[in-house]
Amino acid sequence: MKIPFLGLPDHPQAKVALLPIPLEQTTTWLKGTGFAPLEILKVSPYLEFFEEETGLSPHQEIGFFTYPLEEFPFSLDEALAKVESLTSLAVTSHFLPILLGGEHTLTLGAIRALKKVYPDLKILHLDAHLDFRDTYLGTKVNHATVMRRIHELGIPILSVGIRAISEEEFKAIKEKRLSVIFAHEIYQNFPSVLRRIEDFLKDGAIYLSLDMDALDPSLAPGVGTPEPGGLLWPELLSILKVLAKARVIGLDLVEVRPIPHYPFTEFLVGKIILKFTAYMAKFSQE
């Protein structure tokens, strides 16, 4: 099944590919992330296509191609292999891949593909949770361990917005010298936080993994594991602007849990994609 982003035909010279990834196998609280890609694409035609801050229309300046929405294997290993394959296909087709999730575990599949192409790969990880447990509920690969598995691949990660963490993860920050910006640091001095993010983005091939629970629940209520606090809209836009100036090679937006009759979080995902691609287009013209 193919539902094009914004309801528009695929652009013949598209630079960005949307990959719907309906993965939901290890979620442990609120269920429904598997339905997110469909609902995000369904609501996207109701976005305003023109972006007022840049004065650009990303669907014209950047162009979008949407891959079909497919069923995923029941086996998690096979599902991650499929994510890896789809990401590789997008990259070899010269697209910037944007993965629409789906649970956060999918990021591991995407990173496995991108690491083969970009040896200098780095991850900007926006999240309420560190996702750095060694095991969770008896398994090594799931939404609560995904960043630890990626760290073990030797990939630098900057985690931003963390405000719910286990004791095990708290100890790992010091022991493994992890780069973490807690939510309370954002509240206290956001300009300083933004400078730290800019420093991280200065070199390397950058991948953004945006768990939507990084945002305040008043802004993004439809998530699987909501936490009070979090990034507000102006803060997120500031981060997206500095990110758009970097060498971005892919991103994902994950952990959306559709709320029946209230698709605001899905709408917000589409808005984030339009904002980010508008910033990309604007900065490429300067």
Automatic annotation (TrEMBL):
MF terms (GO), sorted A to Z: agmatinase activity; metal ion binding
The UniProt entry, under SUPFAM superfamilies, shows:
Arginase/deacetylase
Cofactor(s) listed in the protein's UniProt record? Mn(2+)
Alphabetized Pfam families for the sequence: Arginase (PF00491)
Binding positions for Mn(2+) per the UniProt entry: 104, 127, 129, 131, 211, 213
Q: What is its EC number?
A: 3.5.3.11
Which keywords fit this entry according to its UniProt record? Answer: Hydrolase, Manganese, Metal-binding
Q: How is the cofactor bound?
A: Binds 2 manganese ions per subunit.
What processes does the entry annotate via GO biological process terms?
A: putrescine biosynthetic process from arginine, via agmatine
What NCBIfam families does its record include?
agmatinase
Say which family it is in: Belongs to the arginase family. Agmatinase subfamily.
Q: What is this protein called?
A: Agmatinase
Its source organism is Caldimicrobium thiodismutans
